Amino acid sequence: MRFGQQLVLRDIQLEVRAGETLVIVGESGCGKSVTLKLMNGLLEPTSGSVHWDGVPVTSLRPKQLNKKRLKFGFVFQMAALFDSLSVFDNVAFGLEQNPGLADGDTIDTVRRLLRDVGLNFDAVARKRPAELSGGMRKRVALARALALRPEVLLHDEPTTGLDPIMSDVINELILQTASSGITSVVVTHDMRTAKRVADRVIMLSPLARLEPGEPQIIFEGTSDEAFDCTDPRVSQFVRGEAGERLHDPTAA
Amino acid sequence: MSTATLPRTESLIHVLGARVLEAICLIGDLCLFAWRTFGWLMAQRPRGRMLWQVLNEIGVRSCPVVLTTGAFVGMILAIQTYDQFAVMQMENMLGTVLNLTVVKELGPVMVAIMLAGRIGSSMAAELGTMRVTEQIDALTALGANPIQYLVVPRFIACLVLIPLLTFVADAVGVISGWLVSSQLLGINSFFYWKHSLEFVRGYDLFTGFIKSILFGASIAVIGCHRGFHSKAGADGVGRAATEAFVHAFVAILLINFLVGTLMMRLDRLLFPAAKLI
After folding, report:
1. What is the ipTM of this complex?
2. How far apart are CA A146 and CA B138, in angstroms?
3. In chain A, positions 190-229, which contact chain B (CB-CB < 8 Å)?
4. Chain A contact probe: residue of B142, B147, B229 with most A CBs at under 10 A
């Protein structure tokens, strides 16, 4: 996958198994969020292909693509709530846009979704996203994604910018949705999140830090295995140590 | 969006070539964007609430700037033209030139330029912010088409309201021009209006109307296009807003010239016996 002259992802072979929670970790700029957007069909790979249930995404017509994409709920890094809409309208957006997904009355559905993510409907429904805290925004974004009744939930940096308690609340919500049978893919820097929610962890490395021909996925295993990994790049990341990176010219 | 990139060896020829390629790619991309907008306009009605919000923003909130522009265009035109006509002792013909210029040329162009600054830039900044905060991606992820949801309402609003606002500005320009001519410059109102009615035809109003429709469409398409392709960060959004205005400004001048030429030829073809000043 490249953007203009810049190559971001190379030789990635990744399979997400139904029902698992896969956590993708890695340094900033290694292409984690791009991987997530490729999975959802928001980005088209410059070469290679993405398959949904064995079907190449590029073979789908725009209408089919849109319909199938609704099986994915996407919780964006900064929540990406629509500024001009209230919390209620944000959560109800997917239901109004896709009437076939509505499960009874929209108000009741939104009330239930907000309750599921720990928010009080009467307190927040009329508020605008700008009036919410970071954690509340993430929870509203999760409720909005769950409104589509997705089979797969994609979380982009779910705990970034949140305090430890709110991070734990979000982690708990990820576990709750996973326990209901939803497949989850979580992109994060936060190893506490990885340790808490992951069935499987993979680590991506920025291309600039790889030898020619070396695979970009430098680790695959459980979170405990990540902490025990002998590869210095992996252990340095999971332990959060600066090491030689402090003076590393490629870090820029 | 396909864009050309500067080659590494930056000789003058390379740089010029890359710039030309970049401009061609931009125009091509803009045409595709306009085509998709038109396709969605035909395929699906926009959401009523979204359309209402945009109509309010573009129509109601633009009234003060449009009224001010119209008033000053009429007044300054009267002041500037008077001396020339006085030398030829044709002061009574002032209304003809003034009203013709306002409805056919200056009214539509000045209003479009003001609205390109007010609306075009604001659309680019708003959609650019939505782009960089991933709200446009979120729309796609939720099954909405961003062009249908965001661009079509703005396109409709500009297409409907900019001609309407131009008409208002024309009316204010004509009245303010008459007030200055009659009250400040001492021109007889009877002759002012008599000559105006003799020479300003429905066709002239129609020319201004056609121009304002095309100006409206170009402001909407360019503003939204720049917003959709905004680069990340405050700098990227700011640049998108600036580009929206500059590109719309150039488009307005170009459309004005092309439509002006076309309508003039059509006029001669359809009304060969029409009175000219």
Report:
1. 0.89
2. 13
3. none
4. B142
